[in-house]
Amino acid sequence: MTLEVPTHTFALPDGVDPAALVSFLATRFDVVSEPPSSVTYTVLDTADRRLGAEGLDLALETGRGEATLALRDGAGSPPATGRAGRHRRWLARDLPAGPVRDRLVPVIEMRALLPLARVQADVQTLRVRNRDAKTVVRLRLTTHAALDVGPEPVPLTPRLEVQGVLGYPRPVARLVTVLTTEAGMVEAPASTADEAVAATGADPGGIRTKVRVALAPDDRTDKAARRVLRDLAGMVEANLPGTLADHDTEFLHDLRVAVRRSRSVLRELKGAFPPDELARQRDALKWIQAITGPTRDLDVQLLEWDGLLAGVPADRHAALAPVRTLLARHRAAALRALKRELRGPGYRDAWAAYRTFLKAKLGPVDERPDAVRPIADVAGERIRKVHARMVEMGTAIDESSPPDDLHDLRKRGKELRYLLELFGGLWPDDVVKPMVRSLKGLQDVLGTHQDREVQADHLRQLADDLAGQVGGPEALLVLGVLVDRLEAEQHDARSHFAERFADFASGKQQKLVARTFGS
Amino acid sequence: MKVVATYNIKGGVGKTSAAVNIAALAAADGLRTLLWDLDPQGAASFLFRVRPKVRGGGRKLVRGRSDITEVLRGTDVEGLDLLPADFSYRHMDLVLDESGKPTRRLRKVLAPLGEHYDLAVLDCPPSISLVSESVFDAADALLVPLIPSTLTLRTFEQLGDFLGEVDRRPDVLAFFSMVDRRKRLHRQVVESLPQGRGDIAATAVPAATEVELMGVDRTPVVVRSPRSRGARAYADLWAELRTRLDL
């Protein structure tokens, strides 16, 4: 069931005076003007612009009274509002109870809402009425400017929002026809928030997690690889300030993913690079991965804490409070250490050297056998080989295999996944997408298997620290329940392995891989 | 979606005024709000300048055979939609009687709207009937206007007794309505109430010209004259109700 009313946002063409537009509309419709208003607000969104992608606009309005969050969904309903409180960033727990939180939490999940731009807007609200003097269309005419982006405010495109009223489809259709055919209006290409974010110099799409590099199958492998690596390096740099500020856990997560993908490119396409320099850069990225690991592991523990508690009887939850406190304390210590490293000369020099490596001359190609080969040949060969190796490793796994065998297979799976994500665009979607899907199915099981083992180990290691805490002995007793649950989930994941692997390694799939990525 | 119904067995006690103003205040607070004008007289529909007409009439609507999205109308208050009255609602008792599980019908009609609205306000006709029972079943709370008089509390207690017999008892919040402080009886009745009685609101809505003018201006008093005594009283009443509804 849908209750959406038609909404349109038109950009005022250059030279069209807002007042003249209102006068023009008044000649054609019964238009009532409300008193004009002015508002200065801050655009809030997650760093990856989750709200923007969902068509949501969240404004922090700080007038004379209390700061307010106003959430518009663009579907024609008035904004949901709530008290903003005083925060430098808003995580789900910081949002006011009520509709604002209810609508935002499923979208932002664990991400923080951050101030991205400031806007000053002058708004003229108009209503079109029918013969009964009933409002049948609402209009908002806005002129606005981005603030704090230079010596002067930067004007944004004036816009006219047209919003139908439920149950009255004809008047809005007629108005839109008049606006487009007689007043030359066109739909605004970007939202105000996008324009305001762009005015600050940032990417209106937010910090990306997907590589955006157009490759051709016969591009030289060394050039193609470095273009991908430069894009990934940009993601590392984009996520660094948020990691240091600890806005939310995903800055660090995304930074680590970009580093891991970069390592994967260097490993899988190693024949495109000079061996000595390659080894140095691989070591540098491995070091970054290592220094960021402890904080991420603890983030995972804390993010999954509520889900973990769900498996423990409610009357035992209080007893586990010291465990969570301890995890949070360990996380704070890990973060402090991480910040020291990331702000220190070791990271600065390593990253500068890596950036130089991505743009400097790579030297003669005779010691880089894959450098001038077409990327489709080299990446295709690697995809085929990694797939074949995974089939071999997975086939050898049986019920008696140690957990490390599954872990090793998972690591290979990540290699394959990155190859497909970064270079899969060189092959037809109808081959790559099902392959990614079956790989994902397998990786989910292997991931759960490994994560639960790491989590259980981690909790076991807390035992010594817990003993000395207030409430520690009680927590230790219940900790066993948590560890049992994690082990049960690990066991459960393993029981699904054979089925997922069979799908991944089916004869049909192997033939398809050989045919598509074959030499 | 929370459901609140303005109800009293008697007419002319301020049900529609309360329903319209509470709904407008809820919408102004950002709650997606629906007002269902269940009274065949269609006063709430009139106030919002919406024609009191439901395609297919009350029978199809109650039986779930009309597309409810086709009959909803947006009002002049942003965020507030109206399910208009229809003269055929005067036969709603009969329609309910003919259907299976009549007391659960209105809840069933409202169910699919739950994902679109945070609050539904039902403006009920004055009666005690199958319609009322179906309203009691659908509502999380009943908002009961009481004009201060000697028999008022007795009538209210009778309602309480009746609600004691229904399967799904809504929370009840009564409030004094159309209170004229110049009348000694009104003052006496309001002041004679035991303090801290949980089922009667601390807020009393005054008899005020600006509230009566709603019928002329066809605009809720909380929109037209938000600083007037009447509007402030409705705002206080809404605050009490919102807390009770946990919205």
How would you describe this protein?
Chain A has helices at residues 18-28, 50-53, 99-108, 169-181, 192-199, 221-245, 249-268, 275-303, 305-309, 321-343, 345-359, 375-395, 403-423, 429-467, 472-495, 497-504, 507-517; strands spanning 7-11, 30-33, 37-45, 57-61, 68-72, 80-83, 114-129, 135-147, 154-155, 159-164, 186-187. By secondary structure, chain A is of the alpha+beta class. In chain A, helix 6 (221-245) crosses helix 12 and helix 8 (275-303) crosses helix 11. Chain A is globular. Chain B has 247 residues and is of the alpha/beta class. Helix content of chain B is 40%, strand content 17%. The N and C termini of chain B lie close together (9 Å). The relative contact order of chain B is 0.19. The mean pLDDT of chain B is 89.
How is this fold's topology laid out?
The complex is a heterodimer of chains A (519) and B (247).
Chain A: E1 7-11, H1 18-28, E2 30-33, E3 37-45, H2 50-53, E4 57-61, E5 68-72, E6 80-83, H3 99-108, E7 114-129, E8 135-147, E9 154-155, E10 159-164, H4 169-181, E11 186-187, H5 192-199, H6 221-245, H7 249-268, H8 275-303, H9 305-309, H10 321-343, H11 345-359, H12 375-395, H13 403-423, H14 429-467, H15 472-495, H16 497-504, H17 507-517
Chain B: E1 2-6, H1 15-28, E2 33-37, H2 43-47, H3 57-62, H4 68-71, E3 73-74, E4 80-83, H5 92-98, H6 105-110, E5 119-123, H7 130-138, E6 141-146, H8 152-163, E7 171-179, H9 184-191, E8 200-206, H10 209-212, H11 214-217, H12 221-224, H13 229-245
Helix pairs in contact in B: 1-13
